[in-house]
């Protein structure tokens, strides 16, 4: 089934037999300028954290390296699949066959045309997850009935935690926000048809929220993401993933040292406040940049 056609059904509510990754509305707005989130001064040593190397996907492309921090707290089965395929070198050599400006880069298909996947069973959709008080959450905006914030580097919206005592599991519903850099799982018309195809967001696209699984976010190499050749489909020669591995699987001599600003830190809290002051009523989590260092 054609995975490239599916998002027409998801976003336009048109019945279709084909399957697909996301389909954009015409002329999606460009990504918010990262400068909106810039905070003066440098983060202190206490403001940084080191991501779990088993949760960092290293994607070496012909345009450069992209590092994605996977967030199993939001999508455990999807992250497990990405780890599994990376261990097997499944993604090596696969192309970015569908790339839409101001939207996303799609890849992860061994057929490089949107119709293929791995031989493994499909992964259930993880569009919404349960947030409890034990899950670290950096609040960016409290809207009384809903909260916007971050789980690690993933921008998230959730119901207010004030509702948690009223639920059976003492948790509330939460979902990833499809800001620039967010990694999503492609799927077919069946919401539980994710397999191996995925996409990296070039720009924010809210209509994907609660319709596609958000499983991580680019922490380094967003410039590479937006440099990937555009097309539907992309004309030859297509850009490609040359090698995809987990950071933990790289030989120690080749393994970069990676750290990101902790979204629970004082520095990041100040960055949020500055972004909120700049954007006013238009503020969103997509306006906040999370600094990272790769050495």
Query: Structural class, from secondary structure content?
Result: alpha+beta
Radius of gyration computed on alpha carbons = 18 Å
- Percent strand equals 25-35%
- By DSSP (H or I, 4+ residues per run), the number of helices equals 4
Q: Mind describing the biggest β-sheet?
A: 8 strands, antiparallel
Distance between the termini: 42 Å
Second rung of CATH, namely the architecture: Beta Barrel
Spans of at least 5 consecutive residues with low confidence = 1-19, 26-39
Number of strands: 16
| CATH fold field value | Cyclophilin
Count of domains: 1
CATH-level-4 superfamily name: Cyclophilin-like
Strand order of the largest sheet: 4-5-12-11-13-3-2-14
Name the overall outline: globular
Order of helices and strands: HEEEHEEEEEEEEEEHEEHE
The proportion of residues forming helix, as a percent range, comes to 10-25%
pLDDT averaged over residues = 89
- Which CATH top level class fits? Mainly Beta
Organism: Phenylobacterium hankyongense
Pfam families: Pro_isomerase (PF00160)
GO molecular function, one term: peptidyl-prolyl cis-trans isomerase activity
Keywords: Isomerase, Rotamase, Signal
What does this structure look like?
The structure is a single chain. The protein is 13% helix and 26% strand. A hairpin with a 3-residue loop joins strand 7 (138-142) and strand 8. The strands form 3 sheets. Strands 4-5-12-11-13-3-2-14 form an 8-stranded antiparallel sheet. Strands 6-10-9-8-7 form a 5-stranded antiparallel sheet. The longest helix has 14 residues, at 266-279. It is an alpha+beta fold and 295 residues long. It has one domain: Cyclophilin-like (Cyclophilin, Beta Barrel). It has helices spanning 6-12, 76-87, 222-227, 266-279, and strands at 48-49, 56-61, 64-70, 98-100, 104-107, 129-131, 138-142, 146-151, 154-159, 172-176, 182-185, 198-201, 213-220, 241-246, 258-261, 292-294. It contains 4 helices and 16 strands. The termini are far apart. Residues 1-19 and 26-39 have low confidence and may be disordered.
């Amino acid at each position: 089934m054609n995975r490239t056609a599916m998002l027409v059904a998801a976003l336009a509510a048109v019945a279709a037999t084909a399957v697909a990754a996301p389909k954009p509305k015409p002329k999606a707005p460009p990504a918010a300028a990262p400068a909106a989130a810039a905070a003066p001064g440098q983060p202190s040593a206490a403001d940084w954290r080191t991501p779990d190397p088993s949760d960092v996907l290293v994607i070496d492309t012909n345009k450069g390296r992209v590092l994605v921090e996977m967030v199993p707290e939001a999508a455990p089965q999807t992250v497990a699949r990405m780890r599994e395929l990376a261990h097997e070198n499944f993604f090596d050599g696969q192309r970015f066959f569908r790339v839409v400006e101001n939207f996303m880069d799609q890849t992860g298909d061994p057929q490089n045309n949107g119709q293929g996947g791995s031989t493994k069973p499909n992964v259930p959709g993880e569009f919404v997850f349960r947030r409890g008080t034990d899950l670290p959450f950096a609040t960016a905006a409290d809207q009384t009935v809903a909260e916007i914030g971050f789980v690690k580097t993933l921008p998230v919206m959730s119901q207010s935690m004030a509702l948690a005592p009223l639920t059976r599991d003492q948790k509330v519903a939460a979902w990833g926000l499809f800001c620039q850099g967010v990694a999503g799982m492609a799927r077919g018309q069946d919401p539980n048809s994710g397999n191996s195809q995925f996409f990296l967001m070039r720009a924010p696209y809210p209509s994907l929220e609660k319709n596609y699984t958000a499983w991580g976010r680019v922490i380094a190499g967003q410039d590479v993401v937006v440099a990937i050749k555009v097309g539907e489909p992309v004309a030859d020669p297509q850009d490609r993933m040359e090698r995809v591995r987990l950071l933990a699987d790289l030989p120690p001599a080749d393994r970069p040292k990676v750290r990101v600003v902790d979204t629970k830190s004082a520095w990041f809290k100040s960055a949020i406040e500055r972004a909120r002051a700049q954007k006013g009523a238009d503020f969103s989590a997509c306006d906040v940049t999370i600094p990272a260092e790769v050495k």
